[in-house]
């Protein structure tokens, strides 16, 4: 019995956490500290805070992976959720490991906008699109993150002639089309942008660089 107890403790999943980007939400965990824990299988349950019963996540029932997609299960983005995971190995089950409380609206990370760059001889026009959420309208089009938050965009220009690490903020606001004027012909410029959510005081990572020579 003692050996079973030891195995139970040593395969118990560690660091059970929700990771979420644009409401694409997954539960992540790390295997227990026993070397054998590499061969464990995992079972995932979730529930809304305040509910008494846990729901099984059927796709993540007896899986070898250390991640479980709960995007659809957490689609009520104002609700707080919990996830929990247990492991099994050689007929022994660990106790459940619980995540912290997770509220998608408050805790999801926001992605950068999609950036398109069109140049003329002395100016660059930057077109921005809010990142998409995984959720769809009835007609099938994806709902953007601008539906859920007031988003601001920060647009930076990089003059490769001067210093390709130096980003200069040229615009911050809600516009989706920005014109940057009085640039030098023959110079290579790159544009990167961020999404900023004022209500959460949170910025996205930078978008990938869109570069052009005027």
Describe the fold and architecture:
With 214 residues, this protein is mainly β. It has 2 domains: 1-106, Immunoglobulins (Immunoglobulin-like), CATH 2.60.40.10; 114-213, Sandwich (Immunoglobulin-like). Helices cover 6% and strands 48% of the residues. The protein contains 2 helices and 18 strands. Strands 3, 4, 6, 7 and 8 form a 5-stranded antiparallel β-sheet that branches. Strand 16 and strand 17 (202-203) form a beta hairpin. The longest helix is centred in the N-terminal third of the chain and has 9 residues, at 2-10. It starts with a helix and ends with a strand. Its main location: secreted. Receptor for IL22. Binds to IL22, prevents interaction with the functional IL-22R complex and blocks the activity of IL22 (in vitro). May play an important role as an IL22 antagonist in the regulation of inflammatory responses. Belongs to the type II cytokine receptor family. One of its GO terms (cellular component) is plasma membrane. It comes from Oriolus oriolus.
